[in-house]
From TrEMBL:
Signal peptide: none annotated. One of its GO terms (molecular function) is oxidoreductase activity, acting on paired donors, with incorporation or reduction of molecular oxygen. Its cofactor is heme. The chain crosses the membrane at residues 15-44. Heme binds at residue 457. This is Cytochrome P450.
Length: 512
């Protein structure tokens, strides 16, 4: 009897499993086919909908015959537009290079132009509810907390010491060891900035810039890179349906993304656990500081810190890479920086902190500051940034914005607009930032390289100090010759400007 009951129950559970599998299969096939069908309709509608030459050029990628990069094509379109604003209809995207519009979006009508759901969904799996990815109260709370932390002198000194140590113990020994050889400077800067931002955010050293230049740089760096790259690639799909379906079915790039994010999560959790075990009140890293402010939700802590990793890593590496590319074409600027360095450090004995320029002396280097601002003007690490209109609106140049439209300001194009920067806009001229030898800041809406207004970058000062330290340490000791200086950069798609193929340079130690 028992035997027959157990037989019966095992055959009915078999039957149940079998039925479930069939239903799941039918469900997924149906969902998948329906999605593909919707997608085809969507693409067909796009093709039929707008016949304007810009949209057709976008759809067929014919712009790539004349331009190296999409941002160069947008720059061309924006400079031809009488208002400095264009509309890519099929993307529902208004793009502007007009400083008045930028001020309107980032300050005057800030509440009407949040980052919006379409953006936060793309990066949501990686960034969660971190500052970079949220609007409203959650953003306000983190902004207040992060501004307090990053504004403090102690954390700025802490960041400066991290950078100084990475330069002295890793960057200079590495460049010394490859003197007379070619190496990829972009790769060096990416490793350098990842070590720095990890030490700053987690108090953890991933050792990416070891002399051996380990490959992969570190497992965590690799997972983090892959996760940011694949999250950004979601935005390139012709319809969000494609990646959403792939995510549900755990296929291809979405499967890879999921496992990369899992590694980032596990790493962050290990860091949080370590702090709980060993204590955090005496530590200066960002994670410890946030833990000390009574945040005890592990997921929230993870999200906050991961946003900082994304914000501070590739941006600095990108800014440094284009700076050295521009310097190789403008040796006069390099001489002028060396000259300024000599003047500022005159009477400075080598024993003073191992001849490292001090924080306060760097403040006196107006030309260096101007040169960096100028380089970021021509090559902003964040080439464009989008918001989504909450309600219908009209921009100061009378462009009508329908509710839900994506509105993009384009720092890369703005840096190359004659009407914004004058007829010499394409020249690398640090002098444009100087008056009587002193640096004079520009209107931030004309130069939104660090964004501007209420959501202006929180790491701007830190980033500039980090970049100055690197520039001074390198040009004081080495000659850097870009292998092919006439080759204009081609950018890889991503959240931050990264040069495809890197920046190969010949490194040569300078005579003492
Ligand atoms: C050259 C280097 C950098 C550039 C060009 C840059 C640029 C930007 C831009 C354009 C934004 C606005 C992004 C958006 O809202 O979509 C931003 C936001 C932000 N940046 Fe930076 N950044 C740099 C370095 C850093 C560093 C080193 C840190 C931190 C250590 C940092 C922290 C942040 C944070 C926390 C935000 C979010 C601010 C908010 O949403 O309220 N940035 N940055």
């Amino acid at each position: 009897m028992n035997h027959s009951i157990s037989n019966l129950s095992s055959s009915s559970s078999l039957w149940f499993n079998y039925t479930c599998t069939i239903f799941s299969f039918i469900f997924f096939t149906f969902t998948f086919s329906f999605s593909l069908f919707s997608l085809s309709i969507f693409i067909l509608r796009l093709k039929l909908w707008c016949k304007c030459s810009t949209c057709q050029s976008f759809l067929t990628s014919s712009w790539s015959k004349d331009f190296n990069n999409l941002c160069d094509w947008y720059t061309h379109l924006l400079s031809k537009s009488p208002t400095g604003t264009i509309h890519i209809h099929i993307l529902g995207n208004i793009i502007t290079a007009d400083p008045k519009n930028v001020e309107h979006i980032l300050k005057t009508k800030f509440e009407n132009y949040p980052k919006g759901k379409p953006f936060s969904i793309l990066l949501g799996d990686l960034l969660g509810k971190g500052i970079f990815n949220v609007d409203g109260d959650s953003w306000k709370f983190q902004r207040k907390m992060a501004s307090l932390e990053l504004g403090s002198v102690s954390i700025r000194m802490h960041a400066f010491n991290i950078v100084k140590s990475e330069i002295q113990t890793r960057l200079i020994p590495l460049l010394n060891s490859v003197s007379g050889q070619v190496l990829d400077l972009q790769d060096v800067f990416r490793r350098f900035s990842f070590d720095n931002i990890c030490k700053f955010s987690f108090g953890f050293d991933p050792c990416c810039l070891e002399l051996s230049l380990p490959m992969p740089a570190s497992e965590f760096a690799e997972a983090f890179d892959l996760a940011s790259k694949l999250s950004a690639q979601r935005g390139l799909s012709s319809s969000s349906l494609i990646w959403k379906v792939k995510r549900v079915l755990n296929l291809g790039s979405e499967k890879e993304l999921k496992s990369a994010i899992k590694m980032v999560d596990q790493f962050a959790q290990r860091m949080i656990n370590q702090r709980r075990e060993l204590g955090f009140s005496d530590k200066s890293d960002l994670l410890s500081r946030f833990m000390a402010t009574m945040i005890d939700d592990d997921k929230y802590l993870r999200d906050i810190v991961v946003s900082f990793l994304l914000a501070g890593r590739d941006t600095v590496a990108s800014g440094l890479t284009s700076f050295f590319w521009l310097l190789s074409q403008n040796p006069k600027v390099e001489f002028a920086i060396r000259d300024e360095l000599e003047k500022v450090t005159a009477g400075f004995s080598p024993s003073d902190d191992q001849d490292f320029v001090m924080f306060d002396q760097m403040r006196e280097m107006h030309y260096l500051h101007a040169a960096l601002c100028e380089s970021l003007r021509l090559f902003p690490p964040v080439q464009l940034d989008s918001k989504f209109a909450q309600h219908d609106d009209v921009l100061p140049d009378f462009t009508f914005v329908r509710k839900g439209t994506r509105v993009t300001y384009h720092p890369y194009a703005m840096g190359r607009m004659e009407r914004v920067w004058g007829s010499d806009c394409l020249e690398f001229k640090p002098e444009r930032w100087l008056k009587n030898g002193r640096y004079v800041p520009e209107n931030p809406y004309k130069y939104p390289v660090f964004q501007a207004g209420l959501r202006v970058c929180l790491g701007k000062e830190m980033a500039l100090v980090e970049m100055k330290c690197v520039v001074l340490a390198i040009i004081k000791r080495f000659n850097i010759q870009v292998a092919d200086p006439n080759q204009a950069p081609k950018f890889a798609p991503g959240l931050t400007a990264t040069v495809r193929g890197g920046l190969p340079v010949l490194v040569q130690r300078r005579e003492a």
